[in-house]
Specification:
The protein is α+β, with helices and mostly antiparallel strands and 465 residues long. It has 4 domains: 1-36 and 169-236, PH-domain like, CATH 2.30.29; 41-163, Pdz3 Domain, CATH 2.30.42; 244-361, Pleckstrin-homology domain (PH domain)/Phosphotyrosine-binding domain (PTB) (PH-domain like), CATH 2.30.29.30; 364-438, Roll (PH-domain like), CATH 2.30.29.30. Helices cover 23% and strands 38% of the residues. It contains 8 helices and 27 strands. It has helices spanning 89-93, 115-123, 137-152, 215-241, 291-295, 341-362, 439-457, 460-463; strands at 5-12, 18-25, 29-39, 48-58, 68-71, 79-83, 100-105, 108-109, 128-136, 165-176, 181-183, 196-200, 209-211, 250-259, 269-277, 280-284, 299-302, 306-310, 323-328, 333-337, 364-371, 374-381, 385-390, 395-400, 405-410, 415-421, 429-435. The chain has a 7-stranded antiparallel sheet, covered by helices on one side. Strand 5 and strand 6 form a beta hairpin. Helix 6 (341-362) packs across helix 7 (439-457). The longest helix has 27 residues, at 215-241. It starts with a strand and ends with a helix. Residues 42-48 and 151-162 have low confidence and may be disordered. It is found in: Cytoplasm, Cytoskeleton. This is Gamma-1-syntrophin. GO terms for molecular function: structural molecule activity. It holds the Pfam family Syntrophin_4th.
Length: 465
């Protein structure tokens, strides 16, 4: 169920400094808002123009920068540049404007400093100073008028007030939730943040690190955001499947994290978008948003030629929990992590559902092999089980039901021994040895057919995974 939610949180800026922010969650977006000073001037000049800028100034021979300042926290305002006499560093730079608010002097934040404190900070800033500024058009209009007024009437005692300014919540970033993902981990690592998370959009836009005041608040935000993301993905799958034949329908989409070799990559984990579609598993670096994206996917395997395994705690390679492996018959192996236990179990259930659907549709598959030195074909059939066809005699040499399989053993290269209970005497075990160049593909396919057969006999099997 979709949820709208609003609340105050703390967000770490790019240099790690905490700032109060407001999160606004809607059905399809998550927005981060920060308090900014805006004008409520009746003339309608209520928009702050330009972006934050950094300007470098060097003191002149008299030790000054050529700036006059007004405002400050003691006035309830930012500190503005009110005058810049000609032929001095500030005016000569060509990069400062009357009406610029000084946000930082070097690395010192000035937004909440009183007027005199800003002056002292500027005086002690050194020979070279870096000013971080932002232009306020309403303040600029007033300061220019005041400057003109004071120059024409030097003795005037009237001092018009600065334009009315107030703090308002302004949107800093809005993230579309379709194809977005939420993570509590520090990117590229197995280190879990404390009471914090980050949401990353498909366009790589990020909320930054969101700090919650306690674990309950964290759980509420994670539940609400992930539910909305899941609802959007489910709707996307439903709409896409209307255009697809049953054998090609999308079963599941989800973000995972793939563990990669730290010897070849700077980070040990990287995001992977996993899709189960038709009989295939597809892994993307970027989610497929157009039809051609499916065609261009480089990492595609048949589900029934792979082995999916949920890992136990003792099998984990680092501190990331909720992990699984996907072994492919062609030799590739993927070690993946889900964000939560629920996500991992949903993926496992979707895997077995995809496998059952594909095997039911395919019904049988034959593998080239040799038996007793003769070219043969081993057929796996969902209804009849195992059967070996001799290419020389054009006849079936043996047939067994899936229920007769007792076990198997192999040399991890090409030789496979299948052990069956005899049809005449179940206590007797008959061993059939074959050689197959695609040994692991055959083994994984046998496992896929057995799983599909079990699901056909016991429909609760799919629901239990």
């Amino acid at each position: 169920m979709n949820e709208d939610k609003t609340g105050l949180v703390t967000i770490l800026d790019p240099v790690g400094k905490p700032r109060t922010a407001k999160l606004v969650l809607t059905t399809d977006t998550l927005s981060v808002l920060r308090e900014e000073i805006v004008s409520t001037d009746s003339n309608g000049n209520d928009q702050m123009l330009s972006q934050i800028r950094e300007v470098c100034l060097c003191r002149d021979e008299t030790g000054g920068f050529g700036l006059s300042l007004k405002g400050g926290a003691d006035c309830g305002l930012p500190v503005f540049i009110s005058k810049m006499p000609p032929n001095l560093p500030a005016s000569n730079s060509g990069k400062l404007l009357i009406g610029d608010a000084i946000l930082k002097i070097n690395d010192v934040v000035c937004e909440k400093m009183e007027h005199d404190a800003v002056i002292e900070t500027l005086k002690s800033a050194g020979q070279t100073v870096y000013l971080t500024v932002r232009y306020f058009k309403p303040a600029a209009l007033f300061l220019k008028r005041e400057s003109q007024s004071s120059s024409s009437s030097p003795g005037s005692s009237q001092s018009p007030s600065l334009p009315d300014l107030e703090r308002q919540w302004v949107v800093c970033v809005t993230i579309p939730l379709l194809f977005a993902y939420l993570s509590r981990f520090i990117p590229g690592t197995d280190k879990l943040r404390t009471n914090a998370f980050e949401v990353v959009g498909v366009n790589s836009a990020s909320t930054g690190v969101v700090l919650c005041e306690d674990s309950r608040s964290l759980a509420d935000w994670i539940r609400a955001i992930t539910n909305n993301i899941s609802a959007l993905l489910s709707h996307m799958i439903k709409m896409s499947n209307r255009l697809l034949i049953p054998e090609d329908k999308v079963v599941h989409m989800t973000w995972t994290q793939e563990r990669v070799s730290p010897m070849r990559h700077f980070q040990a984990w990287k995001p992977k978008f996993l899709c189960l579609k038709g009989a295939e598993i597809c892994l993307f670096d970027v989610p497929p948003m157009q039809t051609r994206d499916w065609v261009r996917c480089d990492t595609v395997f048949k589900v029934y030629e792979c082995m999916f395994k949920v890992l136990k705690d003792v099998e984990l390679l680092d501190d990331r929990q909720h992990c699984c492996t996907i072994h492919c018959g062609t030799g590739e192996k993927f070690y993946l992590s889900a964000e939560s236990r629920s996500d991992l179990l949903q993926l496992e259930k979707a895997w077995y559902k995809t496998n059952h659907t594909s095997i039911t549709s395919m019904k049988s598959k034959t593998f080239g092999c040799t038996w007793r030195g003769m070219l043969s074909g081993l057929t796996l059939d969902l209804e009849s089980g195992f059967s070996l066809y001799d290419n020389t005699t054009k006849s079936y040499m043996w047939t067994y039901k899936f229920s007769q399989l007792k076990g198997s053993s192999d040399d991890n290269r090409s030789k496979l021994r299948l052990h069956f209970h005899s049809a005449e005497n179940p206590n007797n075990v008959e061993t059939r040895e074959i050689q197959c160049s695609g040994l692991h593909t055959l083994l994984f396919s046998i496992h896929a057919f057995l799983s599909a057969k079990l699901a056909s006999v016991d429909p609760l099997f799919l629901g239990s995974h």
